[in-house]
Amino acid sequence: MAASDAHKGDVSMRNAFGSVLAFLILLLIGVLAFSIRLFSVIKYESVIHEFDPYFNYRVTQFLTKNGIYDFWNWFDDRTWYPLGRVIGGTVYPGLTLTAGTLYWLLNSLNIPLSVETVCVFTAPIFSAFASWATYLLTKEVKGVGAGLTAAALLAMVPSYISRSVAGSYDNEAVAIFALIFTFYLYLKTLNTGSLFYATLNSLSYFYMVCSWGGYTFIINLIPMHVLLCIVTGRYSSRLYIAYAPLVVLGTLLAALVPVVGFNAVMTSEHFASFLVFIIIHVVALVYYIKGILSPKMFKVALALVVSVGLAVCFAMVAVLIALVASSPTKGWSGRSLSLLDPTYASKYIPIIASVSEHQPPTWPSYFMDINVLAFLIPAGIIACFSPLSDASSFVVLYIVLSVYFSGVMVRLMLVLAPAACILSGIALSQAFDVFTRSIKFQLPSLSDHSHIDAGDASSENVVLDDTIKTDKSEDTPKERTTKRSKKKEKEPVEKPPSKSQLKKRLSVLPFEASIVAVFLLVLLVAFYVVHCVWAAAEAYSAPSIVLTSHSNDGLHVFDDFREAYAWLSHNTDVDDKVASWWDYGYQTTAMANRTVIVDNNTWNNTHIATVGTAMSSPEKAAWEIFHSLDVKYVLVVFGGLVGYPSDDINKFLWMVRIGGGVFPHIKEPDYLRDDGKAFDRVRRTEIGKKYFKLTHFEEVFTTHHWMVRIYKLKPPKNRIRGKNKRSKSKTSSTTTSKRKGTRRNPF
Amino acid sequence: MARSTSKDAQDLFRALWSAYSATPTNLKIIDLYVMYAVFTALIQVVYMAMVGSFPFNSFLSGVLSCVGTAVLAVCLRIQVNKENKEFKDLAPERAFADFVLCNLVLHLVIMNFLG
Q1: Is the minimum CB–CB distance between B42 and chain A shorter than 8 Å?
Q2: Shortest Cα distance from B106 to chain A (angstroms)?
Q3: From its record, what is one biological process in GO terms (chain B) (predicted)?
Q4: A122, A271, A564, A635: least CB-packed within 10 angstroms?
């Protein structure tokens, strides 16, 4: 009696202690997720990184200065020079609004942080949120232990760090949190069948739509899961509650975001959800009728209902197809098409193919970005199949799809990372569970506590608990022998889950084997941690606006970009137009506050092609194009002096291709002749032309390391016959392009 | 053949009707509500087909408000239904509160989208 009482008290004490511990661990995971992303601030400075973040930063500045209503109506005349751009209607506002709210909140609490500081630290803060959301999601699938492991893994997965270091102020920073949280709420609704969570789910989906174009992944993945459940006979009324309100509310909410608007009902990316919406109603009706009729009557009814249902389905499909055919973009946007057909972009849209993050990843990038998780994923998938619940089937579907998408585009590795963390977390926690339990079971002194402590990790989900544990034992040698473990796995699944006590005994492994296995697993995780810290510190923290290089004589810092932008903002007129390749558009508007011709939001291909043509034309023609665009200065990035690899000559072929796509007189083969002498670092030979003079452009500024060079368009000359002729003959004799010419100047 | 089919169908409808008349009144009220919402949606779709969908956001919000109302009511019906064992623990009051909350969100969005 007393013993059982004590045991009961013990259990509740243990639960309380366990949840406090879990809370503390979560807090520490949050701190870890935040602090591991601060390497960039420590090694460089608190600065916004790369290209797109500068645009987001500028938009946030505008939002905090002018308020939300001006933001929605903002027409930006500093970009895409004669055209301009409607920022309020073409930007995903989630990130900006989040940072704006943070800024407003902090300032109303009398914490005077600058907009830039808030923007720099938004991504680390949200990665802490994302790891907490991962905990919740994994808890829905496999319990607290797996949740904590997955959260810890996600806090430092390199793939996610690469997009969310301090200063990397981009949509993905908040979108990954929104993605995971939406999935969590979906699973929560699926497990509880509560309309309350369904409402939260659609709101969270709304936040995701606000934040990132990747929301289409959600609105396709969830219907696929619903379809999977229906096909495998797992339909339940909880599924209906989780899905049907999400479609209606989610569609309406998505249509509220200006950049999505009517696309939410007009483009093919969303049609899958409507189709499944209809299917689930038919299925729900069938199940309802099945419930109220006798089995014999139901057979009769089946023929009728199914035929009517099919007829309705076909009618809807016909309507949908008609809509697809009539919709302006034929339903699919270029980016989605390039997902379904990986070769699409390189064939038809050079502007998408030219972005390096849209290329397919190489094998090493998988090991770089998810490291040991790549080996743990198969084990996690197996763990999900024993016992297969609605939630675990969702996770399996998620990983399968995201592996495919990550194989198409490097940047979608980011979508794979959370799935990889969740599955690896499940695999690791279940493996540890089994090993520690079998160790404790065989230590006589601890045998009392063994049961207690082992149960601790997964006491939350009583239903799954016992069955899972037994299977897991075979699960750990899995890294090496997945096939074998799969076979073993089959047996326990078939057993009824009632005799848990007996099975627990069966699952005990040899003492020494468990010790060694635990040791190896800890080693594996330690290796992962070392790799993550290395990746965060060395690989992914460079702001790319400030460059460093280590050489024999110490550290060199190349701050040329900011030097050039500062020069522009101090020495040129406010309304001067600056032309550069589109990569530098956002930075020029944000840092130099000058009007640019094209920028990183590549919405107008013709305009970019015009600049590309100008860049690849002879000097005179280039001058004419630039002059017609009212350009005063041309900004050129030159890596020749310090060996900066991604300069304009590196991008030159894309300028030619994009220019040639619209203006056929630019032909790629014309630029591939080898006729000169500059210095090719790879082949260690001189190529190109040197020592020439520019006629129509003059150099006005060159930065310290010659990385950015700014040229001014000379005003048109008076028409003196002789002079004019001379300059003409000069340009024609040096058939090189103007940009090529500028680049050769140093030698 | 045809006669046996129609007889089957008659039997079926009779069985359906008798089974349905056994459902509690509150569920029947919800069913009526759902029917009404779906019917309203249909009217709007027919109207759109005849007149055109010019203020597309108005049409969309009109139809989706009806569809949404129907869907939420079906959810409520599922949760309140005593025969659904899955929702034994869920008090009808709680289900109704959730329903109201969800409707509130839905119609706030609709009002926002309408104009």
Answers
A1: no
A2: 6
A3: protein N-linked glycosylation
A4: A271
